[in-house]
Amino acid sequence: MSRQTMEAEGVVPSAANAPVAGATVHVWDLLVRVFHWTVVTGCVLNLFILDDGELPHEVVGYAVAVALSIRVVWGFIGTRHARFADFIPTPKRLASYMSELVKGREPRTLGHNPAGALMMLALMVLLAGVCVTGWMMGLDAFWGEEWVEELHGLVANSILVLALLHAAAALFESWRHSENLVWSMVTGRKRA
């Protein structure tokens, strides 16, 4: 992969062209970080703390729905690494990345790596699903419909499983590339 191709895809070149030790670059803008932590907080509250069907559970659900709606719009008009066009991988790019990952040679990326991008998209689709089914449960047309409640619960549990996988992958990538990815989602900055 040429340096120009690597830079265009947000892959960080190694060794000879490495930046000065300790240098950081701004990657995650404030809106992306607020969205991330709003979703984390909302999911923890609604899955483990708040009672299903109660007003606080619904308010948190609507807050997540609003955050998701804003994030989707931001995916088209936002900063470089927030845009879907920056991180949605082609099948070829995903296959190449996964091949390198299996060999333990995956490149470090500034934005989302191809696998992380797929995880983010899957989580966003599931968030939309849990928001829609939660909203449907409050409508007269679906009031008391068991299948809607079951689907809502299934999607919520799927979010939990994928979120745990996402967290594990972030910790693994932090270790592999000697970079605290969780902290970068707080500060917005990553190692240059």
UniProtKB/TrEMBL annotation:
Q: How does it sit in the membrane?
A: Multi-pass membrane protein
Q: Where in the cell is it found?
A: Cell membrane
Does the record carry Transmembrane as a key word? yes
Task: Specify whether Methyltransferase is a keyword of the entry.
Answer: no
Q: Which UniProt keywords apply?
A: Cell membrane, Membrane, Transmembrane, Transmembrane helix
Q: What is this protein called?
A: Cytochrome b
Question: What region holds the Cytochrome b561 bacterial/Ni-hydrogenase domain?
Answer: 27-188
Instruction: Tell me which InterPro entries the record gives.
Output: Cyt_b561_bac/Ni-Hgenase, Di-haem_cyt_TM, Hydrogenase_cytochrome
SUPFAM superfamilies linked to this entry? Transmembrane di-heme cytochromes (SSF81342)
* Membrane-spanning parts: 59-77, 115-139, 151-172
